[in-house]
User: Fold these one by one.
Assistant:
Number 1:
Amino acid sequence: MSLPIALDGMGGDAAPAMVVEGAAIALARDPDLRFVLFGDEARLRPLLDRHPELRAAVELVHTAEFVAADAKPSLALRQGRTSSMRLAIDAVKEGRAAAAVSAGNTGALMAMAKVVLRTLPGIDRPAICGVFPSRRRPVVILDLGANVACDAETLVQFAVMGTVFARAILGVEAPRIGLLNVGTEELKGDDVVRRAADMLRASPPPIRFGGFVEGTDLVEGSVEVVVTDGFTGNVALKIAEGVARMFRDALKETFTSSLRGKLGYLVARPALASLRERFDPRRYNGAMFLGLNGVVVKSHGGTDALGFSWAVKVAADLVRQGTNARITEEMRAVAHALAPVARAAAS
Amino acid sequence: MSLPIALDGMGGDAAPAMVVEGAAIALARDPDLRFVLFGDEARLRPLLDRHPELRAAVELVHTAEFVAADAKPSLALRQGRTSSMRLAIDAVKEGRAAAAVSAGNTGALMAMAKVVLRTLPGIDRPAICGVFPSRRRPVVILDLGANVACDAETLVQFAVMGTVFARAILGVEAPRIGLLNVGTEELKGDDVVRRAADMLRASPPPIRFGGFVEGTDLVEGSVEVVVTDGFTGNVALKIAEGVARMFRDALKETFTSSLRGKLGYLVARPALASLRERFDPRRYNGAMFLGLNGVVVKSHGGTDALGFSWAVKVAADLVRQGTNARITEEMRAVAHALAPVARAAAS
């Protein structure tokens, strides 16, 4: 069955070429995809002409407006009503597309998505969700920066969304949830995380609370889902990316700065190539906006066509798995189970 | 001039041998050091007998008690009054030692140090401070976990402590301070970081506020000092350590899993050795407890003798640079300059 996806043709450092080529890769992998592509027709048309198969699967909608990478979200929201980004989200709202994918300004995309799509029943605030290539397994982490401060109820909603996401995207039947903290003992952390832990312990399946986890656990992959507020999650993600990049660069320098280094690289090349593939950031591209009445995926702004194609795949998977209906359903069950806990806490 | 340092002989995974050997390395590097070594005499004496030069520089004080690595800080505080850790801190309080170094239980060490030594004038809460091997330069970061939640005033105090520390230990004359946030724009983050930023902007030299920084900046080394609350700082440190370890292990696997990998390693060995040295975690061992009436350094529990010797060096440097007197003095100047700001905010 054909699956229409709205694309912001103008978002991302290498847009629009990267978007068009990414869509072509995604289509070759998944021929049921269709695209509604928003952006500057004069620039997009020649790019599409290079990919006849893609051209047949694309409806091109012209707009000259786009959201700048450094635009303030509040300003983009007010002034960007005909931008390629906004039109892609509108297409989801109107049912012309089942999901939207953009590699543009994250803050603007979240602001627009919140206003246009609104949150799912039972969800107070949407979260940005990502997949982290940890040592043992891919780990789902949220929130990556949509909410700098969160109360315990919000963290529980994130846990529900993360659980449904891990089942849909990673195929884990009963993912364990870890609540990020400064230590694993029950008394660690502030009131918010301790209260969230109490609520998660009282939640019914499929919620499977694995207790507090530390930064190291995220990297080791001790659980399948890590829940935290957007401040800590954002810092965590950027540090992990930064350290990974520093090591890649240091390794590259090691293998190019001396003759022996260069020779060693040539000899060990097959092994090093598989190392590079394992940690290829493009394979983990795509931050999902969860908790909205519609699927929106944010591709990394600096990614290439291959990375963008993965973000498109994640959007398609989320739609096909009925993720949003599942989130609503599980959230209802959790809220029902937690009602006595909430009443006890309030009295 | 001789400098007496109190050592917790029983703290750390490889204690007591690691402590004694670490002290021997530190002494060989810095012959003015003297040690007051607390712990089980029956185990420490034979170890000291292997290092005649160290033996002459050590006063051994027997105690059979020690704080377990997994002991609850509150319990250790009540029941560990004659533990090797507590006696080392007492020695600083009593002036028998100029600083204490322990590789034991961090929470217990902080709890004891707070109760025994109390905070410096003008400082509400001590912080755990570390040095991070970033791309461009070593970066000072605090708090690493002593305070899960911090108000703006506390973050400003951390900035003062971090500045004095960076001058003392890294020799940077006017270190730039970055406040960790989810973005660098002035409007990002919560009220606490925004208010702390306002206060830091109004602070006199040597405080040099470089604005908000993100997780990536910590890794890149865009500033010399990064200030954050203990929750985020702890997660940041553990993620950075975790990712670094994951890469080291993946690299090792790459060079041992195939014949070409092994050969490549042999050829490139000199270059790879310098890479390993650059990121050797032992060189960055030692988390400093800043803001107390006394110098206390926490060595990583899993470190070896060489790592422990670096923690001892940091303790000696902090004493010789008169760090605590400088913190008190700078804090007085900052509080004076901020008094009008605080009055304006309160009215």
Note: Chain B touches chain A through 62 residues (CB under 8 Å).
Number 2:
Amino acid sequence: MQNNAAIISVGNELLNGNTVDTNSTWLCSRLLSVSIPVVYSCAVGDDIEEIKNAIEYASGKADIILITGGLGPTDDDLTRDGIAKFLGVELEYHPDIFEKIKKFFAVRNYPMPEKNKIQAYLPAGTSEIENDLGTAPGIFYEKDKKIIALFPGVPSEMKQMFDKSILPKLKKLALSEVEGSAQGDILVVRKIRCIGAGESAIAEMLGDLMKRGRNPLINCTVDCGIITLHIIARAGDKNKAAALAQEDIQRLRGILGKLVYGLDEQTLAEVVGKKLLDAKKTLAVAESCTGGLIVKMITDVPGSSRYFTYGWVTYSNESKVSELGVKKELIEKFGAVSSEVAQAMAEGAKRKSGSDFAVAVTGIAGPDGGSEQKPVGLVYISIASPDGINTEKFLFGPRDRDFIRLRASQTLLNLLRLKLDI
Amino acid sequence: MQNNAAIISVGNELLNGNTVDTNSTWLCSRLLSVSIPVVYSCAVGDDIEEIKNAIEYASGKADIILITGGLGPTDDDLTRDGIAKFLGVELEYHPDIFEKIKKFFAVRNYPMPEKNKIQAYLPAGTSEIENDLGTAPGIFYEKDKKIIALFPGVPSEMKQMFDKSILPKLKKLALSEVEGSAQGDILVVRKIRCIGAGESAIAEMLGDLMKRGRNPLINCTVDCGIITLHIIARAGDKNKAAALAQEDIQRLRGILGKLVYGLDEQTLAEVVGKKLLDAKKTLAVAESCTGGLIVKMITDVPGSSRYFTYGWVTYSNESKVSELGVKKELIEKFGAVSSEVAQAMAEGAKRKSGSDFAVAVTGIAGPDGGSEQKPVGLVYISIASPDGINTEKFLFGPRDRDFIRLRASQTLLNLLRLKLDI
């Protein structure tokens, strides 16, 4: 069997619809980064028998099994017992682990709840994966080229533990597999991020490049106006696969032109930030309907303080007047959601902040507040640049509040990107 | 077999770590709302054989199978073929569906790409699930009390289609199962949302209430400081189960007191908003390190314009001075991240907005900008209320930027909630 992996996510909350499983997605991406493909992923409830069955089933499909969730201190945390049952062993008490747990609480000046002692138990024949951020140790098992690694479900703890303790092992494993063996193909995945055209229009532009069986394989996903092309290249070694993917990136960029805003994990806000930084320009933002989302996206980027200066969320008419200097008569005449007010907001933001660029958005995010003339989803976006000011009207409805706010924010960032290209 | 369900998510992007599968979580929650438990959930790649195998395996575990993804117009959309193979039938062309697809483009004044014609094909013996928001119709199959329903992977389309076309059918099915039959237990899940104590401290307070086998079963999940207790009540009919869950809610509220901020899907921002509305008070927000996230969370709530007035993201020192009237000397003496500046920001926001409450936050979200005296994760939160002003210092690090920003925002909202309780 080649090195491939399966992921099991444990927790009733995953099957009850209470929690989105972001852990498995993150692990898939990390595994692919060391060329280990995930062939199976599933979610099971907090039940010893179910956990045991899932491990059994997964061990028939993959030789690396990663399990998250169910290692906490409470009675619904049963993954320790599930893996012990699968291995046919008992749980063993580890006084050294208990010392670490006690210390964790002591450092924070909290009394240690009795419940936490259970976390010092590991199935016989397994070892601890250290957890620097919490009290739940992970569990590691390796035998006959099979690896099973268990992590707590708390994403920040799981990620840190995986990267520190397991990823280096897997990297070594993946490399040892490659040397001298032509049978194990290496996968390299790159992404091209597009905005400004629909999925099928982009597919038509690409034509036969998206045919099944082609290498690289090109897949397409859509998320709120962002089209992502996944370029999956296969080759006998990593450099060849990377070169194949890179050729496709060049080819697709040539075909798609301005529709492409970035590569891999780049966000629109990151790309805009980089362009501002390169051009040594600053940006101010005045938001109404997006309510802080645009600034939030911009400041998600580390170092954004180097180009982002002022942000206003002028939700009320009074704040548009007092903070941005929008004329009261303008709001009375055209309404707060109008091309005129959007433009006045951008002008006010530019004037007050002294920034090179200022953007503004006003609209109706819903669910209430729409009318026949001004329906939910109506949004005006204005961009004031050193060369002048542009205001555009958009209809993003009928959709829900979250969609309209996100779509308006993405669209504004994209218009700003195109403006910065010139 | 009882009515239970399995969910299959199709798409290479799910196993490549490129896309988080939120569809299955949403479907789990919707199914539970009509008392249909999900017993299995998995993700498979874009491959006809894999899709067929997954349907086969799921059909051994559940009698309702919901499948999302792979119904688009591009060559990597193979779910149509996978289900046809499972059913052992051919794809058939439906001219009426093709007319709808053509109309979809005509209304939007776009030329229809040729690729979209494939979406007018359905496996023989299945019927269309109408899609009002996109071009991909869903596919419905029912035979011998088995149901298979397929939806496109685009969340907004899938959700609208499920709610409109499938949920009513399932509701009827679930009800028919209950009448006169004591064997099928009904599940009701309620949630209690807490903030202000850790998972094991809360588990200790609850003691035996969290024991396995108890009815209701109480599960616990943690997400960035928010502890959610899931109360899963079982009974022969829905009213009895709901009453059992309600009794536990009362009991847990009594034990946990102020740690409980809300129930079910309530967010902190919603709870704060309701309290402001009830008290007829208004709120202004001045953010630095959280960069718009707090206002974004507040304005996620429909109708928030009734209490939220002014928002500033004063990222630069100049904007703190010019927009909030923070004294320049104060920043020079204590630094932008200090108790003094946080307080001055809140005071300035209250004065300038004329709101009843004003909150402010300043801190170091990282990854850069930390020092020994002021490490990454240091955050000051200030709340100006009609009774005066309170400023508190927090250490949320060492953690990543996203965690620190979210934790700071949640903490601020929680402090405001407690203040509004008095």
Note: Chain A touches chain B through 105 residues (CB under 8 Å).
